[in-house]
Each structure stands twice: as structure tokens, then as C-alpha cells.
Automatic annotation (TrEMBL):
It comes from Lysobacter niastensis. Belongs to the mandelate racemase/muconate lactonizing enzyme family. SMART domains: MR_MLE (SM00922). Its cofactor is Mg(2+). This is Dipeptide epimerase. SUPFAM superfamilies: Enolase C-terminal domain-like, Enolase N-terminal domain-like. Pfam families: MR_MLE_C, MR_MLE_N.
């Protein structure tokens, strides 16, 4: 099975409600979809999210990275030579992790199709059902409480509460939500870099002292402030998770050596795809560090790949934040992973199992 061509499309899916974090507000998924074509007629699919405020990737940069730097290296390559292909992708250019992720996802999809096996089995197998949390956007306190209660009514047992806007209101937001859902759902906080290290310690200690039990706090301080991450991690009892601070395996090694966080959030759009996500999970397992697998604002195309990784690496990926498809107003994919609110299941269809993507707007190659 040889690669013959890489094509592009744009997928647009409105969100059920605007997604609001300390970094941005977004109301529609607008992602680049790649399809990798082969001489056998098999097609692999991938998706890149243009999360400029986190990865630096834009629609234009994703298309340019793939068209000019990645695709020319891949045409003619055998899908069976997976390691050679992933290396060609990762070394084609610096950064551009979402572009690399989209192409890698499509290649792994084809790799599974080549051997007639679902991707999670190719990656080592596992229990085919996982459970995700759902994000509660940062907003007025009453709105966040009612969004949290609706999520619990929909069966979500883990809520990822966005904070990082205003330290005083953030503390009140979390106290109000905790009081409303106590005993029915676990709370994870994500400040998306919105606090200083001292503010984070103050807020988390206030919540701990008030008896608010938090499963973890994600990325309290600026991405580059690893000393700040360490400062917070050392001073609170609640586990601290690194998200924007770590993209690839070398950053994870540095973070672990510094003891700057307790947990690592792996996202395919940060790692550049599946090969580095697996490397990070393996490094974390060696050090006994737990991981979450997360997503950006993505549809069930790329999130499907993250699900397969989560299933196969459940020994170390103990927390799942793959709610992108649940936030979407509809699922543009026919086939693939089954997203049913908090419950996500892989099927035994080869690769990612995607049969068709509806509403894809083709872009010039
Ligand atoms: C969608 C997911 N639950 C999430 O919260 N991801 C964010 C970043 C998403 C974005 O801004 O596109 C995160 O974990 O920081
Ligand atoms: Mg985060």
C-alpha cells in the first residue's frame, strides 16, 4: 500500500454552546481535514485544529506545512514502513504540531487498514470503552452552575471547570459548582495559564481549606513558567497537571526531572500525532506519572485517534478529556468511534473505521 496523494478539506461544525476559556472563545469547529490516498484505493483521514493561541497553528500554516514540507516526502512511501513515515513527518519542519498530527493520524488509520485491524489493537489492545469528562466554560457563576447540573443530568461524572479569569470570582465559581454537584461529579479545574503562581497557590489553598475536593488543577500558570508550575505543585495538596507547558517527549522529560507537575495532559495536536503521544505515555509510565489524554476543539475525526491511543495506553492514561465531539452540534463522521455523551467506544472496524465525512469543503491541493 503506497501513498499516492494528500488532499485537503475544511470541516465546519457549530458548537452546541460557545466554548469559553481564559485564552479564547469559540463557537464553531473549523478544522483542516486531510485525506491520504494510496495505490490500493484505501484512504486514511486526519484532522488539524488551528489553535493559534496554544500551538501557534493557523489554517494557512497547517496547509502550507503539509503541502510544501510534509506531503512531498510521503508520496511513494509504503504504509507498512510506519516508523520511517512518522520520522519523515516529524523531521519535515520544526513545530507545526497540528499539521503533523493530522497527517500522522491519517497514516495510522491506513496502517490499521493495511492489516485489517482497529488501531487500538495495532497499538497493543485494551478495553474498548472509556469515559470522558465534559468542559464547563468559564462564565457567570449561575450559568456555570446550571451548565454543571445539566452535564450531570446527561450522565457526566467528571466536570472540567474552566477558570483563570478573575481569581476572586474563580474561587466563588468553584465553590458554587461544588456545592451544587457534590457527590454526583468529580471536579477538575483548568485555568489555561490565567493565574500567577502565587494566585494559584492562594486559590487552591482557599478551596482546599473550604473542603472543596478537586481531582486536579490544570495549567495554573503561563506555559513557559515551569518554575511557577513547580512552585504551585510543591505548595498544594491537589495534584497539578501540565497542559500548555508540555508538547513533546523532551519537554515531558524536563518537566518530570524538575518535578514541576504531578500529571501530564497529552494532546495529539501538541505532540504532532500518535508516535510522540505513545512516547510520552511510555516515558510517564517509566516514572510512575499519570497522564490525561485531551483534545482541542476537534470533531470525531481526530478525537477518534486519541480514543484509540487512550484505550491502548490505559495503564498510564488514567484520565480522559475527549469531549470535543460532545461539544459539537452534530457528528460529521459516518463510522468510526462511537461517542455517546460520557461513554466512548471503539469498534473493530480497521484503522479508525471512518467511512465518510459529511459536509467536507474540498480545498485546492
Ligand atoms: C476541549 C477540551 N476539553 C479542552 O478543554 N481543551 C482545552 C483547549 C481547547 C482549545 O482552546 O481549543 C484545554 O485543555 O486547555
Ligand atoms: Mg488545558
Amino acid at each position: 500500500m503506497k501513498i499516492t496523494e494528500i488532499r485537503f478539506g475544511m470541516i465546519r461544525v457549530p458548537l452546541k454552546t460557545p466554548f469559553k476559556t481564559a485564552l479564547r472563545t469559540v463557537d464553531t469547529v473549523e478544522d483542516i481535514v486531510v485525506s491520504v490516498h494510496t495505490d490500493t484505493g484505501h484512504v486514511g483521514y486526519g484532522e488539524a485544529a488551528a489553535t493559534a493561541v496554544i500551538t501557534g497553528d493557523t489554517h494557512g500554516s497547517i496547509i502550507e506545512a503539509i503541502r510544501r514540507y510534509i506531503a512531498p516526502r510521503l508520496v511513494g512511501q509504503e504504509i507498512a514502513d510506519l516508523n520511517r513515515i512518522t520520522q519523515l513527518i516529524q523531521t519535515a519542519l520544526e513545530k507545526n504540531t497540528s499539521a503533523k498530527a493530522a497527517v500522522e493520524i491519517a497514516i495510522y488509520d491506513l496502517w490499521g487498514q493495511l492489516y485489517g485491524a482497529p488501531l487500538y489493537q495495532m497499538l497493543g489492545g485494551g478495553d474498548p470503552v472509556i469515559t470522558t469528562d465534559i468542559t464547563i466554560s468559564v462564565d457567570y457563576i449561575d450559568k456555570m452552575v446550571s451548565d454543571s447540573l445539566s452535564a450531570v443530568d446527561r450522565g457526566f461524572e467528571s466536570l472540567k471547570i474552566k477558570v483563570g479569569k478573575d481569581i476572586g470570582v474563580d474561587i466563588e465559581r468553584v465553590k458554587a459548582i461544588y456545592a451544587a454537584v457534590e457527590g454526583r461529579a468529580l471536579l477538575r479545574l483548568d485555568a489555561n495559564q490565567g493565574w500567577t503562581a502565587k494566585q494559584a497557590v492562594f486559590a487552591i489553598r482557599q478551596l482546599e481549606d473550604a473542603g472543596v475536593r478537586l481531582e486536579l488543577v490544570e495549567q495554573p500558570v503561563k506555559a513557559r513558567d515551569l518554575d511557577g508550575m513547580k512552585y504551585v505543585t510543591e505548595r498544594v495538596n491537589t495534584p497539578i497537571m501540565a497542559d500548555e507547558s508540555v508538547f513533546g517527549p523532551t519537554e515531558v522529560i524536563e518537566l518530570i526531572r524538575m518535578r514541576a507537575a504531578d500529571i501530564i495532559n497529552i494532546k495529539l495536536m501538541k505532540t504532532g500525532g500518535i508516535s510522540n503521544a505513545i512516547r510520552i505515555a511510555d516515558i510517564a509510565a517509566l516514572y510512575g506519572i499519570e497522564c490525561m489524554i485531551g483534545c482541542m476543539i476537534e470533531t470525531s475525526i481526530s478525537v477518534a485517534a486519541a480514543v484509540h491511543v487512550a484505550v491502548a495506553k490505559a495503564n498510564v492514561i488514567t484520565k480522559v478529556d475527549l469531549d470535543g465531539p460532545s461539544l459539537c452540534a452534530f457528528n460529521p463522521v459516518d463510522g468510526g468511534v462511537i461517542f455517546n455523551e460520557s461513554e466512548i467506544s471503539v469498534t473493530d472496524a480497521p484503522g479508525l473505521g471512518i467511512r465518510e465525512i459529511r459536509g467536507l469543503e474540498l480545498l485546492p491541493g
